[in-house]
Write the structure tokens for this entry.
Amino acid sequence: MALVCFNASLEKHAGCAHLTVAAQNYRALLEELTQRLPQLTQEVLTPLALVIDGEIVQEPFLADFSADAELHFIEKIAAG
Amino acid sequence: MSEAREFKHIGQRTIRPDGFDKVTGKANYGADLSLPGMIWGAILRSPHAHANIKKLDVSRAQASPDVLAIATFEDFPSVNAAAQRNGSQRKDLMDTACNIFANQKVLYHGHAVAAIAARSQAAAIAALDLIDVDYEVLTPVLNINDAISADAPILHETMMTQGLAEPATEASNVSARMELKKGDIEAGFAAADVIVERAYDTPTVHQGYIEPHATTVVFNDNGPSMIWCPTQGHFDVRARVAQLMNLELGQIKVVASEIGGGFGGKTTVYLEPVALILSKKSGRPVKMEMSRGDVFRASGPASASQSRIKIGAKMDGTITAMQATLHYEAGAFQGSPMGPGCMTVFTPYDVENLYVEGFDVVVNKPKVAAYRAPGAPQSEFAAEMAVNELAKKIGMDPIEFRLKNAAKEGTQTIYGPKLKVVGLVACLEAAKSSPHYNAPIPENVGRGLAAGFWFNIGGQSSVIINLNPDGTGTIIEGSPDIGGSRASMQMMAAEILGVAPSSLNPIVADTEHVAYNQTTGGSRTTFATGMAVVEAAEDIVEQLKARAAAMWNVTAEQVDFTDGVAHNLSGEDQLTLAEICASAEKTGGQISGRANINARGAGPSFAVHICDIKVDKETGKTDVVRYTAIQDAGKAIHPSYVEGQFQGGAVQGIGWALNEEYVYSKDGIMENAGFLDYRIPLASDLPEIEAIIVEVPNSFHPFGVRGVGETGIIPPLAAVGTAVAEAIGQPISSLPCSPPKILKLLMAAH
């Protein structure tokens, strides 16, 4: 099961700091999270980048990850 | 890429393909295009920092024979419709529109109110006097303290603070709050032997690009309209203008001219939509330029900030807790880089207990834009100053203190993920053994050292490489070249194809001739567009092998391609790339490679800077007497340009730390909107910036590249601040360390 960790701002929506998920790709992850945590809506999650085992994926729509991956949602990084 | 590799072209210092045109004046920048029948646009700007527009009357201007078109906020068709809808994107678009033209209210000195097109620039400027505006002047909000005070005038009546524990119920000048945490901050401070707590502030500063914004635009009813402008992202200019003007993307072609600096400041639109409106109304090509004063007053500077930092450590040097409260000015509309500021503030440190709270605050100043590593210099300045003070209190060398607590592979950041392989320790070790750090500190000189971190990004890049029948070729890319990237693209393609870099001509195509590319910024171009170049070149190699196989009547698997030569593994035959291209007609037509990617795997970059500063204690004047910039580049494709990025970032950071600041009157009028009064460092002000390239390869890039454009501006603020503090024997908490401030500190101490 992949581990999803929420930062302090997302924790307010999620109601927990982390949880494990059965999903192994981004679309399944969104579906699972929004079903299990109704306040964590698509509107909250889709503007964010997904970090998979330390790699920031700015556009994660097609991203896959392993069953033991560590996942974080973070603000997309802007350009300078 | 995980092991050391030998390269033929990567790592060489080739001649830049755009250099000759630039040094001979042949290169065409934003203001260099003139067209038959062209007229000029000019903008009427607000003389007030905060005022309601009671009346905007353009009738006298309309009646003037010199005036060919007038534009105001009312000319944005889709924004008026968008205003009826909800959603963050619409809000963002509305803010962009309201920044380009004030909508019933001016929010900063220099805010555009209306524009006029006339036959000459002088006529357009003169006709601005024919526009009548009645203002109801309001009290301006000019800094964070004023903005967050209980009785502050509210800039936007509908703006509620996002991110609070409970939903906001009243309008506020604070648009957003962000919170990040790790571990137990209270327990961390309880475990500390020594605690440093201090407040810091940084001023509003400008990127200081030498080329002002300019554009030439032709509206076309029967085909794509053309926009010529200096920009870091011509595809985003196209998208922004299309949204504002309710046009399809295919109705606009944007040509990126050569660009005289951007540093993040040329990632949005100011003049382009205005010129398109004027061109549409007049039926003529329209040219517009910002004056230097306009650039200062009405483009996007970097946020001013206020930070409170608290750090605790044990006497053995172990940091036990780090805490920050960060406020960022967004300017007149929400959207400062508060988020990345919060995420980067403590990332150079592997510490168990962290807490960061950030606030985005609107004030009556121009809407901020990105500036190299947006948000990071402000927060990391505060953190690094406190770290240096703490190291001194404990009695540890600042490098040893950092090495004891340095972020490394596996460090869990405050924004969540664990770092992969990074080069901070390598940079600190390089600093420790550098000639500069081992040189004695001269008399009356202070020495400062600081570290910096930036994420770097990847993103979308598209590249086409066309080969000619003689084996030369063209690299068609869509990333505006703001730092020598065309040379890097040449070198990476040449490395794969085994040809001389000079045989490949790199061009930045307009939005019609190459697929979408994200903006040049975030240190993404050499990494992401470079990956696309490599992929396109590898596409060509496969085709070259197939063509050679066809010539030899063997399979492609029986062909090897090395150093520009195809080898028949079933015999002795060889064909050079040029020979294969020469016979392309016989084997299926001409050869081109293509790549459209959304690059992942950008490698973060760390830097460490060392600064020696001499202070004249009678005048407060500062002189940087020695400066060294050390940074992890992953792999330096072109070392000269990498060093140039290090040096450029250092110089801009030195300016931010020593002299640069927006100065406003109490009424919100900017009083130093020119380079005579806004003091950026000149070449004659500074010593040679010594650059040390550290190479800890990024395994996600074929050559190991990490972006290098951002991180270099982060450490100078605290390296300089600490050096000044050491030189005068007084703590520094406010930038810039300008002579009046230094004198005040010295007088207070005596």
The helical segments of chain A are 8-14, 26-36, 42-45. The CA atoms of residues 3 and 76 of chain A lie 20 Å apart.
